[in-house]
Amino acid sequence: LEHDKNTENLIDFICIGEAENSFLKLSKLLISSVLNQKNIIAFESQMKSISGLAFNDSNEDLSVNLSHDEINLENLPLPARYKLPQDNYYYTVANVIVNRGCPNQCSFCTRQKMFKTTRIRSIESILAEIRDIISLQTYNHINFYDNINIHKKYFRNFCEMFIENDIKIPWGCEIRVDTITPEESKLLKEAGCRLIATGIESANKSVLKQNFKYQDPERVRTGIINIKKQNITIQAYFVLGLPGESENSVIETIEYIKCLPLNDNDEINYFMATPYPGSRLWDDREKYGIKIIEKNFNKYDCEHIIFETGELNKEKLIKLHSIVKKIEKEYKKCNLNKE
Description:
Strand order of the largest sheet: 4-7-8-9-10-11
Oligomer: single chain
Number of helices: 12
Structural class: alpha/beta
Cofactor: [4Fe-4S] cluster
CATH topology of the largest domain: pyruvate-formate lyase- activating enzyme
CATH architecture of the largest domain: Alpha-Beta Horseshoe
Radius of gyration: 23 Å
Strand content: 15-25%
Organism: marine sediment metagenome
Pfam families: Radical_SAM
Domain Radical SAM core: 88-311
Helix content: 25-40%
Number of strands: 13
Protein name: Radical SAM core domain-containing protein
Shape: globular
CATH superfamily of the largest domain: tm_1862 like domain
């Protein structure tokens, strides 16, 4: 990132990558330095030894230790959900992390830089967390992140875990629907899955290929058909303004949406392509022909127009954004004309 003097006094430390170890070491060192009144040289020397930590030292030089620990997910303790004020919510949802990292290489994602490898928690670890959530008697639903069907065998074991242990709490998950078979859809239903979220992004094969989203729109449609036969709710995610996108490809995607077998329980969500630092969109922006027109990171929320491409300038993107948001809103109201 470019140096920004407006923010240099707002940030004391940055934890890079997986922060459980670096943040804990930092916290202990800060407490120790206050209690023992360590001199600044000794303090900074210890700070520089912490993997995955960046800070400005006393000479105003940026110290960065880029090497960071890869966390063994099996060693992480269960979240202390009992400390949260559950009575403040009418409907409570517990979010459970199933894995870290991703084998996919989507241009808009930063997981390739955030995590070194893809790791999946054991079924036993997930089951222990589910039981802990149920024991609190305050949660109505569990969402599992991220993609639980990276591996077919794990996916089957995951679903069978609910069946074999007679777990009744409703749950949802993120999956790739292009690989879901009719048998797997039935297994999801039997396991108590109520909601599936999936990233479709675009119906245009060229746009998908340019952005390293390796899935076929027709296979996605088939997967959705399989899932909807089991009456499982779907949240379908799309991205507007990716490299290679044109007005015609947006229209193609809208027509594709209209042909999907979705009903009034399902949702369509459209997001603006956002070049987060660490993603291909950011790192390869010159190669993609991306022109960044918004540098205020408060607007990097997938709702604002951040860049233009050769095909779509800001004026065109504003027009298209208005159209897809209208589609999104109308679909939620079950008014989308599928004629």
